[in-house]
User: Fold these one by one.
Assistant:
Number 1:
Amino acid sequence: MGKYIKFFLVGIFFGIVLVKSEAVSWYRIFEMFKFQSFHMYGIIGTAVITGIILLAFSKMKKIKTIKGSTLRVPLKERGFTNYILGGTIFGLGWALCGACPGPMYILFGTGAFSILIVIAAALLGTYVYGLLRDKLPH
Amino acid sequence: MEYILKPWPWFVSGPLIALVMFLLLYFGRTFGMSSNLRTLCAIGGAGKRTEFFNFDWKSQRWNLVVVLGAIVGGFIAHYWLSNPINIDLSEATVNDLTALGFQNVGESLLPPELFSWDAVFSIKGILILIVGGFLVGFGTRYAGGCTSGHAITGLSSLQVPSLIAVIGFFLGGLIMIHLFYPILF
């Protein structure tokens, strides 16, 4: 139990940040895809820049994880088709219901219970992908 | 306290999201919220039928704990750390949505036109949520990650596959908003 506390706390922090940044709002996602505000680009941009700096710093200082291994990001497999096709399908859904997987859960916490339908449908989508995986171009 | 109760500017929120990613890496894990959908399928028994879900989901329990935390975080932020004020959307966005038939734009996190029970119990309303959710779930697994896994973690570690996926995210989003929305609304 104890070893899970830190993950619970990180999750709480993540949920608070995404609500306070308004990144969980359907309206902000619409606005982003309309290029009508810098807000979401600012969030993603500063997150990525900070991430690059943090990762470069930890590489330079050879920072270890709490387990004692080298801190590193798992590498994505090489590929193109699955990333561009899967990404586009994801984007269509993201813009339609205004929620990606993190915010789906967080929105449930804000009392938006109809998001459970989106979560259930996302589970179904994931399951169908698993069924069709071998038949899809990767 | 007043600064916490107000919406946080992007230059505060972005770095804090990067901190979440870094903390999970420091704990020897990684930041990716869509993996949980696969884990939940596995817990539901999908591994008996499909090899893709046949993995040791217990090793992913930590990530489900992150989800539980995120739900609690959403509750805390919404009910205890926010003053109810409208989202400061651009005027153009408010005008565009009003023209599409949306009312009271930005007065809540989600538009009642899509997420209220009245909307959910209409054919069009429930189809939008189901199709949207399905595409997110299918697409994120096909692309091997979502906004947290590709746009934040992947781009921060300068991985080309993530850049391709993020380009896909935007391609899909732009097609939906610019081609399909005028038909849907």
Note: The mean pLDDT of chain A is 97.
Number 2:
Amino acid sequence: MDFGLTEEEAEFRAELRSWLATTLPRLPPKPSPDDWPGRRAYDTHWQRLLYDAGYAHLHWEAAPGLRLVFLEETELAGAPYVGANFVGLLHAGPTIAAEGTPEQRERWLGPILRGDEIWCQGFSEPDAGSDLASLRTRAVRDGDDYLVTGSKIWTSHAEIADWCELLVRTDPDAHRHRGISWLALPMDAPGITVRPLRTLAGTAEFAEVFLDEVRVPVANRVGAENDGWRVTMVTLSFERGTAFVGEVVACRRTLAALAVRARENGRWDDPALRRRLGRLHTEFTALWRLTQWNVSEARAGGGVPGPGGSVFKLRYSGARQELYEAAAEVLGPDALDLDREWAVDRLSALSYTIAAGTSQIQRNIIAERLLGLPKGGA
Amino acid sequence: MRFRLTDDQRALKSATRELLDRLRPPKALRADASGGAPRLDRVMWAALAEAGVFALRLPEDAGGVGLGAPEAVLVFEELGRALAPGPLVATHLAAGRVPGAATGETVVTRADGGLVAWLDEADVVDGGPAGPAESPAPGPGGRTAPGAGGLSGGPWGGPASGPGAQGAVPLRSVDPLTPLHRVPGPAADGPWDPAAALLTAAEQLGTAGRVTELAVRYAREREQFGRPVGSFQAVKHLCAGMLVRTELARAAVYAAAVTGDPAETAGAKLLADEAAVANARDCVQIHGGMGFTWEADVHLHLKRAWVRARSRPTADEAAETAALALAESAGESTGPPVPNQAL
């Protein structure tokens, strides 16, 4: 066990810090959350800057130390988040890298890294959210194409995406886990309709996607036909295992800002509230250590994160919500004013125990896959 | 950056577990717990000393094993897991300072949090703060030697004199395997000892993991409504919560052992206390009516976890320490709060 940086990691940290210090002040102003074209332009511009500086690949970096340094330093400097590049960089990219053919890697990985192409996620359906294996969107072979018909939901970035990582049923008669395939769907194909959904935070964060006999080349299938469930588990292990790691650093900064506010408005003098904030500080510090542990273990396990990511995801999503509940205690009436900071974030935090597998699903995964308890049962 | 156990560390952990299984088979626990006032098993104590439990961090040229805080944490996690009795932390911390502590000939206890454990069985009551006499040697450039981590520094480690436990009054200990005395005066006064906090947290981590295993095993074996209770989601989710608490505490305890940061050590104690106590309570729940009997060992783990949670820093003290660290980090933080990054 050792948290010290190697010489390579220390050099990388210094170089990255100096690059961030000169680059961040020159970024354009952030677009509003509802301005999707603006958000795409902003997020892909940032990705291109990372690419040109030689940092774009760091989410896929073999050496976990460099990746952790990258995540920590960019968050500490207040650099933009992956944003619209999230699915491409943290789901589709790693999945194609792990499971794709050389041609597929050649076709898709470069544009993701350069910020040229945006991906969205077509996994969930109205009747197949947490019970993903009951998905019904079907793909029927027609020559060298699949004809895809069905609908997807909770699709973040669908309005601005170039590609969708799409799960389809290619064998309706097979066992429900065995008839699924993983396709790269071009979002400009005829037959696709995107309908934005308004969240409880008031923003149109995600969308429904309707697919009516959409043609997708068979060559766009990643992994074997009907082997999509296994490919999907690879994707989800990236999501749970490592996709949220940078956010822990962000939460630590947010908590520090909250402490500043509490000292300004006198709430810090309330011992119960002060200890609650101290307790959260301990929690996020430990979550960051757990992150370092998980990333190290993932590397040792061949690069694909294990189900230990569910442990992190469950605790992190709860802690994030507790952070904003504590914030509301510090802020008093301001916490109910949508024009002030924090209120929208408090609302957004509600999604964390639902998105990317609900907390209940994560508990099932932990109980069955990590603890070996029997499946099934009500 | 390598946050994994080395092969040597894994070997140390499993060797300690095997030793404790031999010395303290679980069925011996219940016999001890039912036998009135517990006596300290000096044969076991000598065997622990022989295995290097007390001399673990003493330099080799002083007759020690020459290992560091991370290794000590792994060993104390196993001691906690096995419910090993005796003032283990106090004796370990006295090694190299109190003659005979390192070799197990002298059993050392100390007052902590208004209580002193094993007073009648101990040979020496360690004093309070004093100059460190046997702290690890500084490494090159004045840095603390690698591995010293959370067990270096601090004002603790005086000779075996001082106020000790004068005026101590026996109480009927809730933990049948830990005799306790109350010591007069305030329970919390002055600084707490980071080294004791870290090792106690490691013991709590051991308990948290052990009761999770016990709960999961019972949930797989015990059938109700025609199937194992562990197939029911309500039970599964309790077990999952236990593992999550354990693994977060593990990250905190191991990290504190490496960094030696006092705030991280306080946090480790806080999370490990929570994990041990809440997990033991859930373990009782999963055992159902059996869990409420004296015959199941579960209550012994819960009671020991309660005793350790009383040692300093308590939850409030740890939270205050963490709040202070947060305030300091907030002073350094110059950036704006991070805006919404959800979805």
Note: The mean pLDDT of chain B is 85.
